[in-house]
Amino acid sequence: MPIALPRRALSRTASIASLSLLTGCDFSDHGRVQAALARVSAWNDRVQAALFNPHKLAPTFAADRAVKDFRYNAWYGPDQAPALDAADYRLRLAGLIENKQPWTVAQLHALPQQSQVTRHVCVEGWSMIGEWSGTPLRVFLERIGADLTARYVGFECADGYYEGMDMASALHPQTIMAFRLSGEILPRKYGYPFKIRIPTKLGFKNPKFVTTIYVTNQQPRGFWTDRGYNWFSGI
Q1: Closest to 59 measured CA to CA, from 115, 161, 129
Q2: What pLDDT, in 10s, does the model give residues 197-213?
Q3: Is residue 158 domain-resident?
Q4: Using one digit for the tens of pLDDT, what is the confidence trace for 122-137?
Q5: Distance of CA 199 to CAs 57, 131, 189, Å?
Q6: Which CATH number covers residue 183?
Q7: How far are the Cα atoms of 41, 97, 103, 112 from residue 140, in angstroms, in the given order?
Q8: Distant-in-sequence contacts of 194-198, Cβ < 8 A, 24+ apart
Q9: Contact at 8 Å (CB) between 1 and 161?
């Protein structure tokens, strides 16, 4: 997830400058510039969604390529990461889901799991290969009777983060509920008890400390989308 707001501000300033030339907007006309930016962002989202192939896999790597000391990334320090207790944790389910019974950590860990060695790509310009293990989100959505014809899946997190994705991305075979990193139970600072790992999207689309999953036909908000980034953000 992005932490370098000055970098975003520079990028956004460049976008505003370009749009001012294309649209004739004056820098003082903040409302019109923001509206133009919003239209361009929405157009980008539509193009990315149209180009997305739900069957195309992100590159995978040999296990020895995985970094053991994976980079920490958030807008707060690791000592401020939520400390969720397995005994008290319950995953809440909402929206177009048949069985909304909350899930415990033990129940989640009992789900069938698979591993992937994939590259995490951050919007800040860095990337890192990690080994993630967990349950395909499709398997979980089928298990709880989610409406797979719905348009979106949304997530709410213990640290106040929120995110969402289109259903096709949620059902992608590499989109998982990651319970382990490098073979170990997911450490607190990386999102215990699980994070969504989706290697076909930029890193900020991979929410951590997930406490709620919901299925909906209304596009979910995104924490960084609300701060200027594209919603679809496929790679």
Answers
A1: 129
A2: 999 999 999 999 999 99
A3: yes
A4: 999 999 999 999 999 9
A5: 9, 11, 19
A6: 3.90.420.10
A7: 31, 11, 11, 9
A8: 194/108, 194/134, 196/137, 196/155, 196/163, 197/116, 197/118, 197/132, 197/134, 198/165, 198/169, 198/172, 198/174
A9: yes
